[in-house]
Amino acid sequence: MSFSHRNMSGRHRVVIIGAGFGGLFAAKKFKDADVAVTIVDRTNHHLFQPLLYQVATGILSSGEIAPSIRQILANQDNVRVVKGEVREVDVNAKRVTADLGGKDAVLDYDSLIVAAGAGQSYFGNEHFAEFAPGMKSIDDALEIRARVTGAFERAEITDDPAERERLLTFVVVGGGPTGVELAGQLAEMAYRTLRDEFRSINTSDTRIVLVDGGPQVLGPFGKRLGRKASHRLEAMGVEVVLNSMVTDVTREGVKFKDMKTNEETFVPSYAKIWSAGVAASPLGKHIAEQLGVEVDRAGRVPVNRDLTVGEDRNVFIIGDMMSLDRLPGVAQVAMQGGQYAARTIIDEVENGTSPEARKPFDYFDKGSMAIVSRFNAVVKMNKAEVSGFVGWIMWLVLHLLYMVGFRNRAVAAFSWGLNSVSRRRWQLVATRQQLHARNAIRKLRTYEDEEGKRSIEVRDNLRFGEGRDTRAVSD
């Protein structure tokens, strides 16, 4: 079954794929413009991805960082929201096909903005994902929360000292902002939040290991801030292991190799979390191949100075999916790219500006920041470097500024303030479904591939490029 969306008003049709920072900021820029906008996303929410680790560690609830796309754009009459997974983009026909449980939405466009973002990369070792989830979605954060809290609960009832030690050992792979922030929060949970809440274990015995292949954590922040972050983590009890490459992740733990000595170390661990790399949505390669462009190793698409692809001046690729001037995959790049693409389209529609007359995209670097612990963050803004309490305040202000909605800002500010003076956390609920759903769906998919059929539970969880060409059953 399918339905087709065609603009009957005669207005310029814009399709935006993805409602992350890039897609949302582009859609909002079209407010009051004489265009018809359709934004399509596989979820019904805009995700403030940099705060996922706070959901995973019980500081914020999912609703505070993932407001409804429809509610955000409710007052923009020229915007329509379609929930579905994009299955095909035909640049010659100027058409996007999205699927939700076997029902296709066919979206015709005059201009296309692709902001589908990136997923977790395991550098060719996808089997690591079974035991070490990444952190790119609400589902990921809730699963990690269930794994972390479950580790303490299991440790409470085991009589085996070796198993208890494994359960109380957490390994975070990747020393970027997500890994550093997550390791810091795990330390605060173990040594502050959960203190005195268990009777058979002492959470102060928890071991937290942060592994990274580089010579320092937070590489893009520079050596000085990287050292400060490492020293702060170590002071909190985190073991920072550098110049080490993970070679295996199993149910029992993590194996990594020192890249200088080739010495291998195995750390028994129940809860493993992967934050080491990203890979652009394969949708970028799908579009690039049609336009005769080759993607890089991370799947990012080389774009022109106006963020278009190849010879097609109506297809814009922004955010984590684009490769331009070695810009980092951060929210600011996506936001500014989305606004630029929208302004460019509006200028063409309202002023008749030709593609040849477009001004090139000019990124303004507003800096990078990462929170290490309560009252401590590192901030790099061009040559200026700030750390400690002042950096923490700057982090709070900036993240509140970019959260969507007054209610979410107010609740987040209250939660952060309360967390700074109290060791309690009020968002630690975890369910067995959150813990097991991802791997259960993966196993169900394997079975269905063998049987040549596809249930709605699997079909709705398939991403672009994954097999949907089997007989659909149930709805």
TrEMBL record:
FAD/NAD(P)-binding domain location: 13-338
Enzyme class: oxidoreductase
Catalytic activity: a quinone + NADH + H(+) = a quinol + NAD(+)
Keyword Transcription regulation: no
GO function terms (MF aspect): NADH dehydrogenase (quinone) (non-electrogenic) activity
Domain of life: Bacteria
Transmembrane segments: 389-406
Xref: InterPro entries: FAD/NAD-bd_sf, FAD/NAD-binding_dom, NDH-2
Listed EC numbers: 1.6.5.9
Keywords: FAD, Flavoprotein, Membrane, NAD, Oxidoreductase, Transmembrane, Transmembrane helix
Gene3D superfamilies on file: 3.50.50.100
Keyword Transmembrane: yes
Pfam family, one: Pyr_redox_2
The family this protein is said to belong to: Belongs to the NADH dehydrogenase family.
Name recorded for this polypeptide: NADH:ubiquinone reductase (non-electrogenic)
Organism field: Corynebacterium resistens (strain DSM 45100 / JCM 12819 / GTC 2026 / SICGH 158)
Gene (name only): ndh
